[in-house]
Amino acid sequence: MAKKQQEAKKSRIVEAYEWTLSRLERTIFMGIRFFQPKRFLNPHGFLGMLTFITFIILGITGVLLMFYYKPSLTSAYDSVKAINDDIEFGFILRNIHYHASNAMVFLALYHMFYQFFAGKYKLRNEVIWITGVLLGVLTVIEAYTGYDLILNERAVLAINIGASLTNSIPFIGPTLAQLLMGSGFSDIVIRFYVFHVFLIPVLMGILMLLHFPRNLILDLPMISVIAGGIIVTAGIFPVDLGAKFTPEVPPGITVPEWYLTSLYAFIRTGIDKFVAGVLAPTLFILLFLAIPFIDRKKAVHWSERPWVSGIGVAALGQIIVTTVWGFYVNPDPTIELAERLEIDPLPYYGTLIAVTLAAFALTLAASEWVKEKRKKRPRETPQTFKIRVSDKAATLGAIILIILQLVIAGLALQAYTAGQQQLALIEIGASLMIFGFLLHLLRFASSQGVSK
Amino acid sequence: MTEERKSRRSFIQTILAAVSGLLAISPFSEIVRYLRSRGSAGSIRQKIANINDLPPNNRLVFTYPITGDPEKDKDPFRKFLLIKLPDGTLKAYSMVCVHLWCLVDYKPERLQIECPCHGSIYDPETGVAFKGPAAAQPNKTLPEVKLEVDENGDIYAVGVVGVIGYGKEAAGS
Ligand code: FES
Questions:
Q1: Domain with B118 in it: what CATH number?
Q2: The ligand 1 atom nearest the CA atom of B115
Q3: Are A163 and B165 in contact (CB under 8 A)?
Q4: Model's pTM, two decimal places?
C-alpha cells in the first residue's frame, strides 16, 4: 500500500520532469545530450568537460571579483590589494580564481595533447579540432589579460612584452598596438578589462558552440573532486600580490606566468623580437591547426602514424624545455640585470634541436615496438573490478563521509573566522572533494544492483 | 527566362547587394580614431612653457596631451621632458624608457638622460640610447616631441615622433 502511494507520488514528479523535458526539446539546449556515467571512467575521455568546468568556476568567481576591482591606472593595484587583504572572503575568491585559471590552461593543453595522440581529430572531427586549438589560444590570452589587470611589476612586464611584440609586427604593428591598447596605461587597463571580462569570454562561448560534441560526459564525482582539488591547491599555494609598479623605482626580477615563460625564453635569446615572439608561436599554432589535413591516413592509433606522433612528442618536449628555461635567471647578483636575463642562444637552440631529434627517434622506435606487440597479442578486454559493495555498506559509508564533511565544514568556518584563510580554503576544497567521493560511492553501489 | 540568365541575374544582384552593404558600413572605418585614443584627433598644439622659464642645462617635466582628467594626466605615457641643452637648444622626449618603461630623467651634472631601473643612458641631443639594455635593442631612441617657439618665446608641443614606450624608430605617430 505504502509502496503504491510512493509510486504514485514518484510518477507525479516524473511527470513534471518529463513535461519540462518535452518543452525543453523546443530549445537548443536539448541538442546536447548529457551523459552521466554509471561507473568510474578514465578522465582522459572528458578532459574537455573538466576544462569547461574550470571556465564556469572562473566565470562565477570573476563576476564576484568585478564587484570590487577598479580598472584604473591609479586604483587597480590598490583595489586588488583591498580584495586580497581587507574585503571579507575576497582572499578566498581571488585565490580560487587564480588557481582555476592555471588549471584551465593546464587542462586545455592536456586535453589537446590527449586528443592529438588518440587521433581524435579524424573521423569528421576537424571542426571540433580547429575550434579547440583556437579555444586553447584564447584561453592563454584570457589568462594573460587577467593577470595584467593587477598592475604589479609582473603585470607591467607582461604588458610591456605584449605591446612590444605587437609593435614589432612589420608595417601594421605600431598602428595595431595603438588600436588595441590606446595611448597609455589608463587606456590599457580599461581595455584589457573589457577583453578579459567580456570580449574574450564571449568569443570563447561562441567557439564552444562549435567545439562541443553532441554527447557530453557529465561526470559529477570527478568534477567535484577536480574543483575541490583546485581549491585545496589555492589554499596551499596562495598567490601573492607582487610589488606595485612604480616607474621611478627599479623593479625586482619577475618572470611571466608559467604558460608564457616559453615565449619569454625565446625573446631573451636576443634574436629578432618579431621572429621569436610572434612568428614562431604563430607557426606553431598553424601547424597544430593543420594537423588533420597533414595526417590524412585512416589509422588512429599513435603507433600507426609515427611521424605525426613524433610531431606531438617533439612539441611536448619543446614546450617543457622552453617553459622551464623561461624561469631561469642568472643568480649572480654582481652582473647587471639585463645581462642576467640574457639567454645564451647556442645551448638553448641546441637543446631544442636535440630534444626534437630525440623525440622523433624515440617515437619512431617505440611505435615499431608497439606495433609488433599489438600484432602478436590482439586486444585484451580489460578486467572489471570484482569488489562488491552492498547498499547497506554504501549507505553507511555515505553517512560517515557526511559526518566528516560536517566536521570539516565546521573547521573551515572556524578557521575563516580566526583569520586562517588558507586553512579555510583547504577545508572548503576538501569538503567538495568528499562530496565527489560520496557521489562515486553511491553510484558504484547502485550500479551493481546488489542489495543485502 | 533561361536558367543561365536567371543565374546571371542572381549573381549581379548579389554583387549589387554586397557593394551597397560595404558602402553602408564604410563610414564606420573612422572608428580607428576612436580606438587610437590620442586625447583628441590629430596633432595637438599645446603650450608647455616660456623660453625664459628654463635656464640652460636644465629640464622640466610636462604632461602632453593634457586631458583635464586627473587619472589620464597621471599616465607615464603622457609624461615628457623639456630639456634646454647648455648651448640653449630645446629638446623634448618621452620619459618612458624604451627598455621596460621606467621613467628617465635628465641629469645636468652628467649632461645625459638616465634611467633609474637598469642603467640605460640616452644622448640628450638625439634621444638615442648609448649604454645599458636599451642601447642593445634595435629600437633604442626615445620618442621625440616636435616643438615650436613663437615670437613671445612661448614653447609649444605639436606632436610626437615615434611610439611611446617602444621608440622613435617605429612608424606611425
Ligand atoms: S627600464 Fe630603463 S633601463 Fe630598463
A1: 2.102.10.10
A2: 2
A3: yes
A4: 0.87
